[in-house]
């Protein structure tokens, strides 16, 4: 398998790799160093990339230059060189490539191995990103790295989204290739959601990726919580400098907290509309308040679909303190919002995304003796 540190793609990739290994397949992973701990915790031994350019999705003061850095990442041929070399060494029967590094596809396909593409965000986003109208689509075509190129087109797209929220028209995905929609893939399957107490805290967790305006948005959220009869736990990770924030007394700041461990004890989530965080919150039956950080992600699509389903509230990242405060009051006080989130959570808990993905990959080709992710 070939993956990269890009935020919400790590845990679904870990879950699929772990499921394949559980089924008896020999799974090997190429990943960035910052991802190795997550794979090791799942009993897997990832290997580092050697050929691609150095990469980090985090920046102290992100701006346009930070956003543009995703373009050469997507077209970097180094990922393909490393994966092709691994295929030649191992005799792998299948390679699963992350959709954010399509520049790897052509080189891997040239080895003759079967190739699947892991699409871990809304398919509609990738349909737009890979279109001729998109800067990403234009860049990939100029670089000879577009995934729709006949020499790069994967044998299968594995789309880890929920039908009904991410609607794939006529069964066709963002590329002219066979597509399976598995539902969200969780690193830890949520159990039965129990209603949280009315005095339970709210979780505030924006992206682990650095986006322009993220720190300012988080500060306005903290200011909006100040004075409300609400307790909150806010995680800041490495994408925001915590010492530049001014938290109120009713907010506990943490550098990191496992969402799977924290969410069973909270009553709502305030986030950025990231697919992984949002689906996990809903799987716990929690209503969500979402502030999409970038139009160059699927966050606006996720936020819009969840708001349309009546399970959450979407606001722009530039929302005022007063507007955020009103939304928090609704988030914690509207029984209908909580009920619709609970119903959507039932649907999500019924999905075995990792199992469906593993079955689709097994059907593509016999995976013995090795499967590369």
UniProtKB/TrEMBL annotation:
Q: Which InterPro entries match?
A: EryCIII-like_C, Glycosyltransferase_28
Domain Erythromycin biosynthesis protein CIII-like C-terminal stretches:
222-347
Name one matching Pfam family.
EryCIII-like_C
Q: Cross-referenced SUPFAM superfamilies, in alphabetical order?
A: UDP-Glycosyltransferase/glycogen phosphorylase
Q: What GO MF annotations does this protein's record show?
A: glycosyltransferase activity
| Name of this protein | Erythromycin biosynthesis protein CIII-like C-terminal domain-containing protein
